[in-house]
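stuck on this one:
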Amino acid sequence: MTELPSEAWRGWYPALYKFRELGSRATQIVENLQLYFAPIRDMTDRTEVGAQLIIPEDQSKVVKHLDEYLSVLKENRAFEYKLFQKQMARYHDDIMAPFRASRRNARVLDFDARIKQATQLIADARAADGPAAVHHLQTFYESIRKGLPEAAVCCLAKVPKAPKMWEEYANQHRGVCFEFSDRIFAKEKKIAKVLI
């Protein structure tokens, strides 16, 4: 891999990586800073997002499943809150820091709402008998599944040295890998690095 010089991001931003074969979609990224989001209904491998859901029949397994979901939500919230604190700490150097932090805080508040919902689901599942607990889990997943046909997916990786990603998305290691800040979905987009 050869690293081409480009604008460096502030060191505390987490990076995300997009692998592409050389062609029009890679050109879109460079020229327009646009990423392609594939509609789920058009994806060739829907198993990545539409895997069959197997709901456990046992109440204790339902509760365990929801506990794991709650644990992931709390972990993600802690990560977002840590980034929020880092952004707020920069307010002396960056007049826009509180604005950026407010967007991060909105994510933290969203996680708070989801944690509250998951906590209530767990309480309901514990209070219910076996079939009612399973029904709570089915209702929860059905609410998520309803929005999937309209959703779109953009695959990103956390590391640039991912052989499977280079093979699958970058034309058998002959494409490129773009590094973005986690702010990739903000209005102001910049490519941090291009790896070839």
Remarks:
- The radius of gyration is 20 Å.
- The helical segments are 24-32, 59-89, 97-127, 130-147, 163-169.
- Confidence is low (pLDDT under 50) at residues 1-12.
- The chain is about 50% helix and 10% strand.
